[in-house]
Specification:
The chain is an alpha/beta fold and 275 residues long. The chain has one domain: Vaccinia Virus protein VP39 (Rossmann fold). The protein has eleven helices and seven strands. Strands 3-2-1-4-5-7-6 form a seven-stranded mixed beta sheet, sandwiched between helices. The longest helix has 18 residues.
């Protein structure tokens, strides 16, 4: 197991029993997923399912005939469905599956190592990230949801390549674009794709907990205007990409930015958006 995968598994283990901490976030996510599609036997895929603390599978099971849980950490997903015996026949686990397509390569890097060889490896990762295609996810479901996975992938880039590397911004852009493309391509014609994303935390935005709900959208816009957001997670940049990139735009009939919400995760609060 490479260092990056060890970190990912460790984080899942840390929040394995975090059901209560995810409550307000889970209610919002589950509500959106449960009400977005009308079909006699719809299917759904949750990307970055992990411990499934951010979705109530018992509720999802009342709205979807088949549920696909996709993650790099098999142990976390197995644990999540252990108590869902009544739905076991409708749940398919795709794990371990690396949805970034570059986890193994990233795990071999040492952040800020520098030098021509390191630069060559980063360039190789950029090329791989732009063409990664996880098996078995193309056109398979009615609804697909990326469960705050994009920022986790970008965090892996930060830990392996380093924010100060000259190609870091390019790498983030390639990974984000490919993530959106794969997410859109995974749904059938007429389906729905969700990109759930944490955008900023109370570490740099300490007013998140105290900002009134009715003012929270405007507060988040102000943060974004001041460049206070996680790298790659600006929802307005993502909207623009979906509207202007020809390869993405042809996969989309309509794009909607959902009203953001707060997520109290113990020591930190997060602002979360859904597209």
């Amino acid at each position: 197991m490479n260092d990056l995968l060890t970190t990912i598994v460790g984080r899942n283990e840390e929040f394995r029993h975090g059901w209560k901490d995810f409550e307000n976030h889970r209610i919002r996510v589950t509500g959106l997923l449960a009400s977005c599609f009308e079909s006699p036997q719809p299917t759904i895929a949750l990307w970055g399912a992990g411990n499934c603390n951010d979705v109530d599978l018992s509720v999802i099971g009342r709205h979807y005939q088949a549920i696909h849980l996709v993650d790099v950490d098999r142990r976390a997903v197995d644990s999540a469905v252990h108590d869902q015996q009544e739905m076991a026949r409708r749940i398919t686990i795709h794990a371990p599956m690396d949805l970034s397509g570059i986890l193994e390569q990233l795990g071999g890097l040492r952040v800020n190592q520098g030098g021509p060889r390191f630069d060559d490896e980063v360039n190789s990762i950029i090329e791989a990230a732009g063409s990664s295609t996880p098996a078995g996810l193309h056109g398979q479901v009615d609804v697909a949801a990326s469960m705050c996975l994009l920022t986790q992938i970008v965090d892996g880039l930060r830990m392996s390549v380093g924010e100060n590397h000259r190609s870091f911004v390019e790498l983030v852009a390639v990974v984000r674009r490919r993530h959106l493309q794969l997410l859109l391509e995974s749904v059938r014609q007429g389906g729905v794709a969700f990109l759930f994303s944490d955008v900023v935390s109370s570490e740099t935005a300490p007013e998140i907990p105290t900002t009134p709900e009715e003012q929270f959208g405007d507060y988040l816009i102000g943060l974004i205007r001041n460049n206070n957001f996680f790298t790659g997670a600006n929802p307005f940049a993502i909207l623009k990409l979906l509207q202007t990139d020809t390869q993405l735009n042809c996969l989309v009939d309509q794009v909607q930015l959902i009203q953001p919400w707060k997520w109290n995760l113990g020591p930190r609060w997060y602002a979360v958006t859904a597209i």
